[in-house]
Amino acid sequence: MFKTTLKNGLRIIIVPQKNTEAVTVLVLVKTGSKYEKKDINGISHFLEHMYFEGTKKRPTTLAIAETMDKIGGIYNAFTSEECTGYYAKTVSTQFDTALDWVSDIFLNSTLPSKEIKKEKGVITEEINMRLDHPMTYVHVLWSKLLYGDQPAGWDIIGTKENISNMTRKKLVDYMDKQYVASNTIVCVAGNINSNLAVKKVKKYFSRIKEDEPLKKQSVVERQSEPEIIIQTRKTDQTHLCLGTRAYNLFHAQKYAQKLLAVILGGMMSSRLFVKIREKLGIAYYISTISEANPDSGYLLTQIGVDNKKVETVISAVLEEYKKISKQKVPASELKKAKNYVKGKTALLLEPSDALASFFANQELLEGKILTLKEIFKKVDKVSSNDILKVAKDIFQPQKLNLALIGPFNNKEKFKKILKL
Q1: C-alpha span between 298 and 278 (Å, rounded)
Q2: Catalytic residue among 36, 48, 53, 227
Q3: Which strands, in side-by-side order, build the sheet including 237-245?
């Protein structure tokens, strides 16, 4: 891995891979929904859509798509709370095409007014699609429950009202302020020559703007008792997230938090998977995840369950939360979790696009980059005492949260069982 920072602040990361025929060009910008104001919530995601609507060189959506389709490239973009990314993955012999394409949409998008009007309809339908998918939408409720009316609690995609009121001026102003050199990382991973890749990135991104980007609002967390949010719907299955506030990306125990989630519900042989799916047979999908962001974090278990079994499954999850905060995890179970994390991470990072994201996200969010070996060393250092300490700290009644979508409207009956 090679990293260099240009005079204008643009960071370039090169990750050579010998055993691949692919190369990925990823451009990552440190701006997302956490950087927005309420009246423009959703603008980061809207702008991402507009970058596929035309440049001077490629004036139509078709021209943009065909450039990559003609060479069998894989391309897309994404928006999160913390960042927005654009990438192209091709065979290594098409590296110049990938770099030209990504830099073109990133630097030269024209944001045509007629396409903005059309895209309002597209994004509105995307909002409708998410609303119709409770397995996904319950996470939107979860963020709203934890963070309320602040950027961390708003939906990344925005509101229908904001989308309807989006203008070209708002998009241009936001783009000019955020899409600047010091806020941007270009990462190239795959079968490439490092020196040549740096030279070409410098060439293609020579015209990137320079400015001081907007800072995001700090996340404020307040909670003194268990909290519940319910979206009442006539569904055949209840979808819920049950978990707790936890540690951020810079906390010393973030690796212990990750392993705790894996032990509870991160794999098919995890405690909750075995208990709820295999023994009780009351859920098809169940998983526990640990999320560590730069200024906030949480651990949650998500489940889809028969409406009549909701209270049973909540009690079962809380029982495991309580158990793991009272008793040390056996050495064999901790070792299994560590090997699972290391093995799965190594496998997931084989593709060049995953590797580009792995390095670029560390640089963007943490300001430093650790290799896989360095991360695995930190994972290996986690002890059973660390797991117990984290579990005792986060699994407390006043930190519990439940987000639920189903045919319910009475919070009180859930409050009665939301105890540890």
Answers
A1: 26
A2: 48
A3: 227-232, 400-406, 237-245, 296-306, 283-293
Question: Which DSSP category does 149 fall into?
Answer: S
Question: Maximum Cα–Cα distance for the chain, whole Å?
Answer: 64
Distance (Å, rounded) from C-alpha 113 to C-alpha 172? 11
- Does 1.10.630.10 match the CATH number of domain 227-415? no
Is 48 a known active-site residue? yes
- Note the pTM of the prediction, 2 decimals: 0.96
| Total residues found in the chain within this entry | 420
Q: How far is CA 274 from the centre of its chain?
A: 27
**What was the pLDDT predicted at 87?**
98
pLDDT at 178: 98
Burial of 240 from C-beta contacts in 10 A (0-12 / 13-18 / 19+): buried
**Residue bearing tokens 């936890």:** 246
Q: Supply the pLDDT for residue 22.
A: 98
Structural domain boundaries of the chain? 2-204, 227-415
Q: How far apart are CA 266 and CA 277, in angstroms?
A: 13
Q: Residue 9 has which token pair?
A: 């602040």
pLDDT band at 257 (very low <50, low <70, confident <90, very high): very high
Fold (topology level) of 2-204: Cytochrome Bc1 Complex; Chain A, domain 1 (3.30.830)
In this prediction, residue 275 carries a pLDDT of 98
